[in-house]
Amino acid sequence: MNKKIPTDGKPSASLNDAFGALRAADFPQAEPPRERRSADAKPSAPEKLGKVHLRLEKSGRAGKTVIVLAGPGIAALSADRREDLLKSLKRKFACGGADAENGALELQGEDVARVRFFLQMLGYAC
C-alpha cells in the first residue's frame, strides 16, 4: 500500500528539511549591481539625418489617404537604407507602403503626427 502522510499536525522531518541540501550546496555568488547613470547625464542625441517633408495626399488614390515622405533626407538615402526605413515604418505603424518612382516614400494612412515623431526619434528633421 501507499505510504500515508501523517495528518495529526506534527511536522515531519522530510517536509521540514526539503531544501536543507540546497543550503549546503556551493552556488556561485551573484554579480555586484551595475552602476547607474547619474540623473544629470543626458542621453546622446540621435544622428542628424536630414530634412523630411511630410504631406497627406488623397487625390488619384480612390479616396484613400497616403502620407508622402519626401525631401533631401529621403533623397540622400541609398536604395538599401530607403528599403530599411520603409520596412521599419510599415512594421511600426502596421500599414502598407511603397517606394514611389519620384524618390519619395508613401505610407498608407493619415496619422502624420505619429510618423513625424518616429522620424524625429530616428534623427530626421520634420
UniProtKB/TrEMBL annotation:
One Pfam family per UniProt: SUI1
Keywords tagged on the record: Initiation factor, Protein biosynthesis, Translation regulation
Domain of life the protein comes from: Bacteria
GO biological process: regulation of translation
Keyword Nucleotide-binding: no
Coiled-coil features, chain-numbered ranges: none
SUPFAM superfamilies, per the entry: eIF1-like (SSF55159)
Region (Disordered): 21-52
One function term, GO molecular function aspect: translation initiation factor activity
SUI1 domain sequence ranges: 61-123
Protein name, UniProt field: Translation initiation factor
